[in-house]
Amino acid sequence: MPPALKRSLSSTSRSISPPPIRRKISPGPGPGTGTEPAHVADHVRIFSWNVNGVGPLLQKQLSFSPGGVSPLRLFLRRHRWPQFLCLQEVKISAKDTATQRQLLHAANQGHGLDDPTYNVHFSLPRDKYNATGFGGKVHGVATLIREDFAPQVRVTRRPDWDLEGRVLIHELEADVVVINGYWVNGTSNPYRDPQTGQVAGTRHDHKLRFHQRMLEEVIRLQEQGRHVILIGDMNIAPARIDGYPNLRTSPLQHVKNRADFNAKFFTDENGMRGIDIFRHIHGDTRKYTYYPRGPRWGESCDRVDLIVVSRSLVEDGCITGTDICDSPLDRGHSDHVPLWISVDFAKLQSRQRAVKFEGRTGVRTDSH
Question: Which sites bind Mg(2+) (predicted)?
Answer without folding.
Answer: 50, 89, 233, 235, 335-336
